[in-house]
Amino acid sequence: MSRATGPLAEALAAGPVLLDGGLSNQLADQGCDLSGGLWTGRVLAERPEEVEAAHTAYVRAGAEVLITATYQLGHDPGLLERGVRVADRAARAADRPVWVAASVGPYGAVLADGSEYRGRYGLSVARLTAFHRPRVEALRAAGPDVLALETVPDTDEAEALLRALAGTGARAWLSYTVEAGRTRAGQPLPEAFALAAAAPEVIAVGVNCCDPAQVLPALEAAASVTDKPLLAYPNDGSVWEAGAGRWHAPRTPAPWPVAAWRSAGARLIGGCCRIGPSEIDGLGRRLRTGRKSSGTPDGPDPY
């Protein structure tokens, strides 16, 4: 089966599309060493076959979009291209159309110190644009279906990413990481989403790597300023402790009211950190059948 040939934007207009889940947790479950600053990029550099196996696990779980292992990479064009190529192989081996999204993580991800959950790095928009532009160009050259501008913590970085994308003809989604109804840097969400509303390159906006409880208010804020399709791929509600290099899980799983997310405009739905193939399989079954969910991605709806 060849990789998806139609634009992802057309698929989103037709109905919900299932994203994959967390790549790091799946690689860890496969026994891979993710220590060091490159994180999943280390596995991509040293054991690319394991990254392909992780992508394949999500394809088998029903994922229709695979996000590359390039989130935490800097400017190595060979490694960035490898990330797209590895995901491409897994997509082409699927028995149905699968899109490849090239991950463009925030500046803070490359620092590997958790600062993507704070933002406000002290860099100007111009400097952030200069940082991101070669990464965007290298990933575009590798031929993904879409760029995933993801886990963006503040409006300065969003503006920089959009500048790096402007005029390229590429297609991308823009996804913030949020907390308490604002960006991680504390900016109002309508203001943040409005930056992408006028960008012709952006096919969808939304949130990722946040507590599931933060998703619906963020989607409603996005819908107030744009009619673009929305997206949501939260984590399991855990909090990342950068100094210790570990997640702190919530005492009880956070609700996943997927039906409410869809009603708010979400069309691209999946999971981020600590959401694995089994959860994506359950989420996909509910998206196909229209069932609601919460508790965990495959639990009953409490509403």
Task: Give the SSE map.
Elements: H1 8-14, E1 17-18, H2 23-29, H3 40-46, H4 48-60, E2 65-67, H5 77-92, E3 99-104, H6 107-111, H7 125-141, E4 146-152, H8 155-165, E5 172-176, E6 178-179, E7 182-183, H9 189-197, E8 202-208, H10 215-223, E9 230-233, E10 239-241, E11 246-248, H11 258-264, E12 266-269, H12 277-289
Parallel strand pairs: 1-12, 2-3, 3-4, 4-5, 5-8, 8-9, 9-12
Antiparallel strand pairs: 6-7, 10-11
Note down, in words, how this protein is organized.
The chain has 303 residues and is of the alpha/beta class. Helix content is 40%, strand content 16%. It is built from twelve helices and twelve strands. The chain has helices at 8-14, 23-29, 40-46, 48-60, 77-92, 107-111, 125-141, 155-165, 189-197, 215-223, 258-264, 277-289, and strands at 17-18, 65-67, 99-104, 146-152, 172-176, 178-179, 182-183, 202-208, 230-233, 239-241, 246-248, 266-269. The strands form three sheets. Strands 1-12-9-8-5-4-3-2 form an eight-stranded parallel beta sheet. A two-stranded antiparallel sheet has the order 6-7. Strand 6 (178-179) and strand 7 form a beta hairpin. The longest helix is centred in the middle third of the chain and has 17 residues, at 125-141. Mean pLDDT is 91; it is low at 298-303.
